[in-house]
Amino acid sequence: MASIAPLKQVFSRSTGATARRGFATTTRLDASYGFIGLGQMGYPMASNLRSKISSSDKMYIHDVNPAVTEQFAKEIGNVEIAQSVRDVAEKSETILTVLPEPHHVQNVFQQMLRPDATLAEAPNNHERLFIDCSTIDPKSSAGVANAVHSSGQGRFVDAPMSGGVVGARAGTLTFMLGASEELVERTTEVLKMMGKRTIHLGPQTSGLKGKLANNYLLALNNIATAEAMNMGVKWGLDPKTLADMINTATGKCWPSEINNPVPGVSENAPAGRDYKGGFGTRLMLKDLKLALQAGAESNIVPHLGAHAQDIYSAVVVDPACKDRDFSVVYRYIGGKE
Ligand code: NAD
Fold it and tell me: N or C: which terminus of the chain carries fewer CB neighbours within 10 A?
């Protein structure tokens, strides 16, 4: 049998499947990937991953909704639908999870890790790597990481992302990575097949802490932008001229420039299509709550956060606003459309 280069070495010397196949002298076993959670984000991410890995590499997919895995197998192909998350874990060296909330992540990992004996050795004798891209709270994530590490069945990193569904489709996501130093390179090699940037913020949970701090700021900037635009428009200013001015001045932020809440101001922003698509109010509320919860666990009580939570909580149940992009806060406060 041909000698087998340890996958770690193969990963570290390559920039992806194409480069890997270019090593004439390196014999490699096919790699195996597992993907759990093929929703709005997971589906296009898994599709990008499948298109970038070698065609002989294996990919196992699982979702509680069988319709999406069947659709994926039909539309993208070259995957095996696993019957359970345990099945995914047994067959894969690298397992990605893209799940909605902390309890989904906890449940999936409980099922994957039990019983521990048969999972001990990953295919190719390669240490199993679990990459969780879900946005959850750092405490729950640390609990899952601890369960993985203490069971001796692999290593766990948190890699939440930003860029939304558009970035997931285009493969341009930014990942915020929380991982021990020795896992950064291996994890980055996987993530680069689904995104354009991975920022390592520190040890496990650091990616989530960075993500939640960012989304806390986003939640507030979005409300502040809606209020500032509402003021200017009600005072008789032209919204586009006002936004152009803000975007060359100190008030500039992502909601003012890219995702302006006033219809017609930012090209292609959800405001221009009745706030459809984009980043849903529910997800914004979820991330804000996670940030506040994680803050409280560290005795941090941000002054503006609680008020912002009240606003988003009202927006998600308002019939004119619910299930729309979070910039719909502008409509909620009575902005002129
Ligand atoms: P989603 O609800 O569209 O998809 C989640 C998928 O997980 C669904 O297909 C669901 O069936 C599946 N699932 C749930 N429980 C499962 C289980 N036990 N086993 C297997 N599959 C299970 O969510 P999404 O929008 O793809 O978001 C996923 C994560 O990414 C969330 O944590 C979210 O906060 C984060 N995120 C989302 C966006 C966005 O714009 N949608 C952007 C950045 C980060």
Answer: N
Cβ count near 23 (within 10 Å): 13
DSSP 228-283: HHHHHHHTT--HHHHHHHHTTSTT--HHHHTS-SSTTSSTT-GGGGTT-SSSBHHH
Pocket test for ligand 1, best of 35, 36, 38, 40 (most atoms within 8 A of CB): 40
- What are the residues facing 270 on neighbouring strands? none
5-203: what CATH class?
A: alpha beta
Tell me how far apart the alpha carbons of residues 300 and 199 are, in angstroms, rounded to a whole number: 25
pLDDT at 80: 98
Are 93 and 123 in contact by the 8 Å Cβ rule? The answer is yes
Residue 62 CA, closest ligand 1 atom number: 20
Answer whether residue 217 shows pLDDT above 60.
yes
Q: Is the pLDDT of residue 27 over 70?
A: no
Taking 80 as the threshold, does the pLDDT of residue 54 lie above it?
yes
For residue 29, pLDDT over 90 is answered with no
User: pLDDT tens, 125-139?
Assistant: 678 999 999 999 999
Nearest CA to ligand 1 atom 4: 39
Q: Return the domain boundaries, the chain.
A: 5-203, 209-332
Q: Residue 178 is encoded by which pair of tokens?
A: 């929380």
- Cα 175 versus chain centre, distance: 7
Give the DSSP H/E element, type plus range, for residue 226: helix 206-234
Q: Following DSSP, what letter does each residue of 96-123 receive, concatenated?
A: EE--SSHHHHHHHHHHHHSSSGGGSS-G
| C-alpha 213 – ligand 1 centre gap (Å) | 20
Give tens-digit pLDDT for 294-303: 999 999 989 9
Q: Which of 31, 45, 33 is nearest to 76 (CA)?
A: 45
Which pLDDT score is estimated for 115?
72
Catalytic residue positions, numbered: 211
Domain 209-332 matching CATH 1.10.1040.10: the answer reads yes
Q: Which residue has the tokens 């050795």?
A: 121
Which residue minimizes the CA distance to atom 25 of ligand 1? Answer: 40
